[in-house]
Design brief:
It contains one helix and nine strands; from the N terminus they run H-E-E-E-E-E-E-E-E-E. By secondary structure, the chain is mostly beta strands. An eight-stranded antiparallel barrel has the order 1-3-4-5-6-7-8-9. Strand 7 and strand 8 form a beta hairpin. The radius of gyration is 20 Å and the shape is globular.
């Protein structure tokens, strides 16, 4: 009888731990949650080089997005942050979050995004469990497409 109670207690504790271990703070944000690696950039359909010979990541959690460019798997070249909002197939990034007066460069667009202002709006062309494709039209009419694969 003692063994059965121990098993029941262990199962109950395990269930509580599983139900309480949520990594998506302040609610579920859907398929965007997690980290994405930039695999391809296009300008008017033509491939364009990355500004760095490194991997570029975009990580979503809550209403914050982090942009990291990493060389040799661990050397951080560039780190930016913004808030984001999704409305249907529209995804907007707001880089005008200057509460950190000690590092104003932290809140500017990453180099791979090409010249942009503080507010960037993109269309979501594709979003599934493994792939994300974003598109935006620059002020000069150039259409940029950014393709990402989910890392986790």
């Amino acid at each position: 009888m003692k063994t059965i109670n121990t098993i029941r207690l262990s199962a109950a504790l395990l269930a509580v731990l599983l139900l309480c271990s949520c990594t998506q703070n302040n609610g579920h944000i859907g398929k965007l949650f997690g980290t994405w690696v930039l695999t391809e950039r296009l300008a008017d359909g033509a491939a364009i080089e990355k500004p760095y010979d490194a991997d570029t990541y975009m990580s979503f959690q809550n209403n914050i997005v982090h942009f990291r460019t990493v060389e040799n798997n661990y050397d951080l070249i560039e780190y930016k942050t913004a808030t984001w909002m999704r409305m249907g197939d529209s995804l907007s990034f707001d880089f005008d979050n200057t509460s950190d007066a000690g590092n104003p460069d932290l809140y500017s667009a990453p180099a791979w995004l090409e010249p942009v202002g503080t507010d960037v709006v993109m269309n979501i062309n594709r979003l599934d469990g493994a792939h994300l494709e974003l598109m935006r039209t620059a002020s000069d009419g150039v259409i940029y497409i950014y393709k990402f694969d989910k890392t986790w």
